[in-house]
Amino acid sequence: MILDNLSAHSAPPVANWLAHPKRSRWHLHFTPTSSSWLNLVEGWFAQLTNRRLRTGTFTSVADLADAIDLWAEAWNHDPQPFVWRTPPTRSSPR
Question: Disulfide engineering: 64 pairs with which of 14, 58, 60, 94, CB 3.0-4.6 Å?
């Protein structure tokens, strides 16, 4: 499971939950603290969840996977470029 570095994710109750023998194949992988670019992906998943998954009824995993695939195809059909709203700054002199 991939998680951000929120301290709650590594709290003792989480470790205790993961220590159960039925969860031995689960492993936590934490994203680097400097991975703010992942916020863009979080927005995409939020839109997928709000616009497709919460409004649907899925009778199987295959049905859910098909719905996700169709939504992603529709999303990619009309791509929009990312437009930076703030000009870049020089963080160090050259």
Answer: 58
Task: Report the candidate in 22, 23, 32 with the shortest Cα–Cα distance to residue 2.
Answer: 32
Q: What is the pLDDT of residue 93?
A: 59
Structural element, H or E, at residue 3: strand 2-3
Pairwise CA distance, residues 68 & 51, whole Å: 11
Q: Are 13 and 26 in the same domain?
A: yes
- Which pair of tokens denotes residue 50? 């709000």
Q: What angle do CA 25, 29, 30 make, to 5 degrees?
A: 155
Q: What single DSSP character describes residue 31?
A: P
Q: What share of the chain in percent tops pLDDT 90?
A: 33
pTM higher than the cut 0.70: no
Q: Which domain holds residue 47?
A: 36-79
The stretch 68-77 carries a mean pLDDT of: 94
Q: Is 77 exposed, middle or buried (0-12, 13-18, 19+ CB in 10 A)?
A: exposed
